[in-house]
Amino acid sequence: MTASVEVLVVGGGPAGLSAALNLARARRRVLVVDGNRPRHAATLRAHGFLTRDGVAPSELRRLGREEVSGYDDADVVFAQVSDVAVEADGFRVRGRGVRGGGDVDVVASTVVIATGVTETMPALPSLRAYYGTQLHSCLECDGFEKAGEALALIGETTDLVERALLLTQWTDDLIVFTNDVAPVSDDEERALARLGVRVERRAIDDLVGEKGAMTGVRLADGTVIERAGGFVRPVWTPAVSFAESLGLDTDSDGYLVTDAQGRTSVPGVYAAGETAAPGPQQLIVAAGSGAVVAAAVNRDLIGIAADDATVL
Predict the structure, then answer these.
(1) Could you say which of 184, 215, 233 is where a domain stops?
(2) Which of 154, 175, 229, 285 has CA 20 to 30 A from 78's CA?
(3) Does residue 44 sit in the same domain as residue 99?
(4) What are the angstrom distances between the C-alpha of 137 and each of 54, 182, 237, 282, 296?
């Protein structure tokens, strides 16, 4: 397809769809291009989203697409965006169709990047078998459902202690597994011990289970520590490689740097949701970010200055 729109939204998750919905209601011509690779594909239920607590993320996205497409000047297509380039009349966005969708070649006055992040898990062979059921990554989303269970916290990053402290809200039987990688100081270990949290520093071989349910963590020395499930800390990477030619400012972790309304360092390009710092958050936070960005986009297209609301 070849088209011209006012706003092209890259990414059809809660942030992108929320931005598109609010822009459609502002009577903007909006196109959402979604690569159909949601980070939450393995998650069966999403929590904390007002009026949709416990909804499947796939259902939330489906409902969002229907709502956006219900407006005359808005649509959602499935394509993997490969390039965004600056042209005299805006931005040219190209992508290859997925899920039977056609290729995309669109010129837009404004681009909203809402592609989220990709995640890399600790290299445990059976981790994906339990991810989304017994193992989760979002404490706020799934902590309540794991309350009172014997839990593992597995990760290789510097924030494991902080996440362990949060998990003590839901369980008093927690073991932190560093996989012989994550740094936990002796002082931090003693602080966790006072809360009944044990730190296991030995390397992990794999997770074990029976009949599709996780039952424990097997260490490299063969020791099996029984656990009913728990949380894993992925390494998240912003999914913005398609926009490299724009030269957008990023922070040290690769997240897009924006102002409070989602404006990036390139005029006409905005970022919503997990693509911008601080990164992964709850779905309802991402949706709220999309609404904030939509308001900024609409005001900027009208020509209202961000600082003093005077007409340019």
Answers:
(1) 233
(2) 285
(3) yes
(4) 16, 16, 15, 11, 31
